[in-house]
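In the current project phase, we have settled on a layout for protein records. One protein thus recorded is set out beneath this paragraph:
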Amino acid sequence: MKKLLLLAAFICPMAGEAASINDTTFTYRDKTIIVKDSDDRLDVDVTKKDGAEMQKISSTSFVDGQEVEQVYVTSPFIPNSGKRKQNFIGSLPGIMGGYDIPAGSSFGFKGADGMHSIDYKCNEFVVSLVNLGLPFNYEQTFGLVTALQFGVGEIGFNKNYKFDNVDEKNVVIPIESDKKLKSSWMKHSFMRIPVLLDWQKKVNNGQRVIIGAGMSVSVRQGIHSRYKDSDGRHSVTKDININTVGLGFDAHVGYSGIQLYFHTDLTPMFNTSKAPKCYTTSLGIGFFL
């Protein structure tokens, strides 16, 4: 490449004298060399085609017999200044919802012992307010994604049972009432920050395929237990021995803005010495906004 630049520098003055043209363009393989000649300096720029765009990879100037060379290096950790478009995106769903089953272990789908839960009445709804992506490679197909997520989770119980606090311990016990029982549930809100290793690839006119997995940290709050009978709703307790902070495993796979997501607790939802052993496992669908 060095020899090619020098050759272009020598050819250009001759072409300029013969045709009075200040800018001369050469094409060499996948590179384009642009030579700009003026009275006091000679500039040689080398660009390389990157998709539909041309990216400058080096610039050499000859001023009064002195050579000054600049080499352009693209880094995913440094702002691009327009040299390369950011194609790697924060890809976590903007809105997602699905089942949130209280299982007996991480990655489990079998109900936790003593919970008397009904799987199809256990669900969650999550919104991502911040969504960021950081590429690791030049092709921008592999990197880290993260988001700030807020959600609400609900565990539905057998209508004849309630989640209560008895002698400072949480238990699921029968409801003693002469009224017609309709439903029983426990709700909580949470903030979750997932950090996933993501692979992204554009196919079919810009549609994006996404596969990723990683870890998350959740902060739970606002938990309460209630049930409903023929007289209306009844609050049971807010004194629940929840583990406020929990770790989780998260994964997602998607195409063209629609994703399937998976989450499972790696730490129990409750303090196991004072409440049933429970790990929530979520499986649902999300939409990238």
Confidence is low (pLDDT under 50) at residues 3-7, 12-20, 72-82.
